[in-house]
Amino acid sequence: MEFSLIPQQQAQVDAARAYARDLAADYQNRERTGLIEKEVFLEMGRRGFIGAEIAPELGGRGESRLTSGLLLEQIATGDFNIGYLQVVGSLVGQILAGNARPEVAQEWVPQITGGTGVVGIGLSEPTGGSDAGNPQMRAERDGSGDGADWLITGAKSMSLMEYCTGAVVFARTGDEGRGRGMTAFVVDLTGPGLTREPYSDMGTKPVRRGAIHFDRVRVPARNVLGEVGQGFTSVMQGFDFSRALIGLQCVGAAQQTVDETWAYVSQRQAFDRPISTFQGVSFPLAESETLLAAARMLCYQTLWLKDAGLPHTAEAAMCKWWAPKTAYDVINSCLLLHGQYGYRTEKPIEQRLRDVLGLQIGDGTAQIMKLIIARQRLGRALAP
């Protein structure tokens, strides 16, 4: 594994870091308004920051997955919530690129990479949580033959719900057991039969998470992704990639907080000297730097394995459970080092704490990730 960036990667990282500084100016204001501006979607697309790893013929730049992770890490230093455009864009973009018919992929993926549309991921259900392999959403053919339309009924929870013009959803199409008989579809969310239910979350307010209820929503047969009944096993493989990305999204926000805290404790005076001169202040920050360096390298390694075509399911699960928890703990430690100023809303620290917390739940809880790791090491017969 090469630890230095090639010049092209470094230039892109520098560009993302510069744009992140622009985004940071409105990070707190976006929480107050609960809105990511349309101009931000378009600018992220114009700069090639959404789905950078996707092939150029679908609007991407054909970069490595590691490069996409590097870009996300930088964007998250400025606005953690803007990073959702990259995580969801890369996850859904690669699902469509790898499983949709060419004409369907050409219809949807350039919207994602260009920032002109948002295609969400509909896997979890409001009443299902981690039991993603047993959906209540059902899809039935409206007629006979493989060319018949599908009618979808049920509900899905989604990040970026209120922005979505389309979504990849997983529905039961057969009566097989858990994890079987599921089919993935890409669904146009601008037609009839849809009701949107916004959630009131403690953090990530501009992400506008919520549920979309489907009432016999018509989907053409060409919008099936992969094989009918095989959606869970084939399409779900893309989540290993997004789990490593989520790790870097959290690391970016936490590293920014650590950097701000080093600056603060160097200037803050108490007992006639900068508080950075006290071990009780500097040592927790030294520990935070160490933890973030380890989490970052775990995520980099996982993306490197993905690029090399090597197994990385266990490593991705490690990224997903450990990096968000580490980031939360680090930000919380920094908040305490700021004293009352960290607790106040003038500074962005308390918002980052609330924002990062959500990714200890979304895209797979720590318990599910640890289960994946155990099964990768032991096999299903000997694991929980």
Q: How would you describe this structure to a colleague?
A:
The protein is α+β, with helices and mostly antiparallel strands and 384 residues long. The chain folds into three domains: 7-117, Butyryl-Coa Dehydrogenase, subunit A, domain 1 (Orthogonal Bundle), CATH 1.10.540; 120-229, Butyryl-CoA Dehydrogenase, subunit A, domain 2; 236-378, Butyryl-CoA Dehydrogenase, subunit A, domain 3. The chain is built from 13 helices and ten strands. It has helices spanning 7-24, 27-33, 38-46, 65-78, 83-99, 102-114, 231-235, 239-267, 279-307, 313-337, 340-343, 349-357, 366-378; strands spanning 119-122, 138-141, 150-158, 166-172, 182-188, 194-198, 210-219, 224-225, 269-270, 273-274. A four-stranded mixed β-sheet has the order 1-4-5-8. A hairpin with a 2-residue loop joins strand 9 (269-270) and strand 10 (273-274). The model has no long low-confidence stretch (mean pLDDT 96).
CATH architecture of the largest domain: Up-down Bundle
What is the residue-averaged pLDDT? Answer: 96
Largest beta sheet: strand ordering:
1-4-5-8
| CATH hierarchy class name of the largest domain | Mainly Alpha
Our Rg estimate from Cα atoms comes to 21 Å
Tally of helical segments: 13
Helicity range: 40-55%
Topology-level CATH name of the largest domain:
Butyryl-CoA Dehydrogenase, subunit A, domain 3
> Proportion of β residues?
5-15%
Write down the overall geometry.
Answer: globular
Quaternary organization? single chain
- Count the strands? 10
Q: Any low-confidence stretches, pLDDT <50, length ≥5?
A: none
When the domains are counted, the total is: 3
Q: Quick one: biggest sheet?
A: 4 strands, mixed
CATH superfamily of the largest domain: Butyryl-CoA Dehydrogenase, subunit A, domain 3
Distance between the termini: 33 Å
Structural class: alpha+beta
* H and E order: HHHHHHEEEEEEEEHHEEHHHHH
